[in-house]
Amino acid sequence: MSIKPENIRIEDYTYNLPDERIAKYPIEQRDLSKLLIYNKGKLEKNVFNHIHQYVDSKSTLVFNNTKVIQARLKFFKETGAQIEIFCLEPIEPSDYVIAFQQTEKITWKCIVGNLKKWKDLDLVKII
Fold it and tell me: Are 85 and 126 within 8 A, CB to CB?
């Protein structure tokens, strides 16, 4: 099933995730990192060095080497209204690696939350 970006609602990606629940750095012993197993409708917690208990020799493992970016940008107008911009993908340049190395203008495909309150270009980014 494919969802077109214009049909994505920013509200679908809004949830409470406190900063203290986000790992800032990997643990020293990487093989002891948490492993969440979903099998036949049940969730189980374990550690990564026990993955062999869940994967047989005929299985295929796919490694995800993606990087997390700060794709959700929150801005505030002088009136206090919040404008949220969710970056989906770079358009120009379209290559992610090149886009992240840019120090000049980049064009992104975005979803803008609270767009009706953004009547001018003056926004303040709160870090």
Answer: no
E strand segments, 29-71: 34-39, 42-47
Confidence of residue 61 (pLDDT cuts 50, 70, 90): confident
Find tokens 């980049």 and name the residue. Answer: 106
Structure confidence by residue, pLDDT tens digits, 38-59: 888 899 999 999 999 988 889 8
How does DSSP classify residue 118? -
d(CA 27, CA 60): 26
Find out whether 90 and 120 touch, Cβ atoms under 8 Å. Answer: no
Residue written as token pair 């989906």: 88
Q: Which of 30, 35, 125 is nearest to 82 (CA)?
A: 125
